[in-house]
Design goal:
Order of helices and strands: HEHEEEEEEHEEEEEEEEEHH
Number of strands: 16
Number of helices: 5
Radius of gyration: 23 Å
Helix content: 10-25%
Distance between the termini: 81 Å
Shape: globular
Length: about 270
């Protein structure tokens, strides 16, 4: 229990963003990692324990399974422990809290291993999970991941309808807040920063977290929702060079051409 509380305090101090909004963050305590290892079905190296940051009020949590069924989760302080996954695919982790005049929510998607559910992830993202919601369009596929310097599309939705001309605020631990505005279809193109330090060549770099926040007020009620996910360094910016790759391809082509002509010349002489 001491380790859990220590990790909770440290984790809270590390996430110096998302002030005042409810959002999900992986809880890297030994208990969460041990549970994930025991389950044998949590992908992307994430813990089986997640913390709902800035949790307050009358809050609930639930897991939306790949087959779109629901499983309630119980808060222990501000954390939830995921159950062993019974099927593989994408899950949605949802938290909601209400207080007079305020509705706050958070959604995070998880890719878990197991027997694949024969349901497209687009049905999971399209399923209304909270009144105000940020929908990834599309949700990145398994074995893919959000990457710095790349642009992704997110749709702002309120009660099933797109919200036009509303700001989506992007935050990371190392970059200042950036604002992206939704278009006529409610979609905003969001470019993630490649703001990693001490990157080493290869895929062994620990991912960081990004947070998108959307606010909307209607009928005297203030709605705030968040979308949080891990993202990774862009190899092209750190240890891979597109220019050097093109040069290597050109050298390979010229080398192949040389060998081809040499073999033809040898055949004619023979």
């Amino acid at each position: 229990m001491k380790n859990v509380l220590l990790a909770l305090v440290l984790g809270t101090s590390l996430w110096a963003y998302g002030e005042g909004v409810l959002y999900w963050a992986p809880h890297g305590c030994d208990t969460g990692k041990a549970a994930a290892a025991a389950h044998g079905g949590h992908g992307k190296g994430e813990s089986a324990m997640f913390a709902a940051m800035n949790l307050e009020g009358n809050a609930t949590a639930r897991l939306v399974l790949p087959d779109l069924s629901l499983r309630p989760l119980r808060f222990d302080r501000n954390t939830v422990m995921l159950p062993p996954p019974k099927m593989g695919g994408y899950y949605a982790l949802v938290a909601e809290s209400e207080s007079p005049g305020n509705v706050r929510s958070a959604v995070r998607y998880l890719s878990l291993f197991g027997r694949p559910a024969d349901v497209s992830p687009t049905r999971l993202t399209a399923l209304p999970k909270t009144a105000l919601e940020i929908i990834p369009d599309p949700l990145h596929r398994e074995h893919d991941r959000y990457t710095g310097s790349k642009t992704y599309r997110f749709v702002a939705m309120f009660k099933g309808k797109p919200l036009t001309n509303v700001p989506l605020v992007l935050e990371t631990r190392r970059s200042g807040a950036q604002t992206f505005t939704s278009g006529p279809d409610g979609a905003a193109e969001v470019t993630l920063p490649d703001d990693f330090a001490n990157v080493t060549p290869g895929r062994g770099n620990k991912p960081s977290e990004f947070l998108l926040t959307l606010r909307h007020e209607e009928g005297g009620i203030r709605y705030v929702t968040t979308f949080s996910m891990p993202y990774s360094p862009n190899p092209n910016n750190h240890w891979q060079s597109q220019e050097w790759g093109a040069a290597a391809a050109a050298l390979g082509f010229l080398g192949g051409l040389f060998l081809y002509r040499r073999s033809r010349k040898g055949g004619q002489n023979g």
